[in-house]
Design brief:
The protein is mainly α. Among the domains are: 38 residues, no CATH class; 96 residues. It is 67% helix and 2% strand. The chain has 6 helices and 2 strands. A two-stranded antiparallel sheet has the order 1-2. The chain starts with a strand and ends with a helix.
Length: 220
């Protein structure tokens, strides 16, 4: 049976890492005590149907756009392709990783913000997306992440996840404010203040949990 060198815990089965501190286990593996679920979630029928519809729709739109319309026009096929890729990537991430609600919201904000910017470039870039839509989407994600950190009672390490995820998302408005400090749009300033306030609140209310979790994982 495998043993954790730090926790001194015996772990049965074929685990490679300790379930408590994630350290590499030492010793010989033993047969798994519970049968594994071999069903691949990402090969389910609904996932295949969504993939088929998105890929087929993007191909048909691109074909109509570039092969049959000769006059100059907005390339709607590229717009369909951009959003199809974003949706397919998003659905794939949800199915494969079984991500929680906060991460799902943040991932949706990042993917759909990128898709919106690319869509505006295809249509004709006027900075509407980057000036208004993206910062308000990020602000909504930060607020949702903050609220969910108090509603999620499933596990103690969730506090660490919400703080780190808030830092990751909050870096974006900080970079924008630093790079455009002379002419920062109001929406980005609001987003920046929301990110700072959300981070401070999470540290104040979840700081002890985060410190204990980091101590357990990194043994400092």
């Amino acid at each position: 049976m495998k043993t954790c060198p730090h926790c001194k815990l015996e772990v049965g089965g074929t685990f490679e890492q300790c379930p408590l501190c994630q350290s590499v286990l030492m010793g010989d593996a033993t047969p798994d005590r519970f049968p594994k679920n071999e069903m691949l979630r990402n090969r389910s029928i609904p996932f295949r149907i969504i993939t088929f519809l998105l890929v087929t729709g993007a191909f048909v739109c691109l074909s109509l756009d570039f092969l049959f319309i000769r006059r100059e026009h907005v390339h709607f096929g590229l717009i369909v392709l951009i959003w199809s890729v974003a949706i397919l990537w998003y659905v794939t991430s949800l199915v494969r990783t079984r991500t929680n609600l906060s991460r799902a919201i943040s991932l949706a904000v990042l993917l759909f913000s990128a898709a919106a910017v690319l869509t505006e470039i295809v249509v004709g870039y006027r900075a509407i997306t980057t000036t208004y839509i993206v910062p308000y989407l990020i602000s909504a994600a930060l607020v949702a992440n903050f609220l969910l950190s108090f509603l999620d009672k499933r596990e103690k390490q969730s506090g660490t996840f919400y703080v780190l995820w808030s830092i990751f998302i909050g870096i974006i408005p900080c970079i924008v404010v630093i790079l455009r400090r002379d002419v920062t749009p109001l929406a980005w300033e609001i987003c920046f203040f929301i990110s700072v306030i959300a981070f401070i609140c999470l540290v104040v209310f979840k700081g002890r949990t985060v410190f204990l979790e980091l101590h357990k994982r990194f043994h400092f």
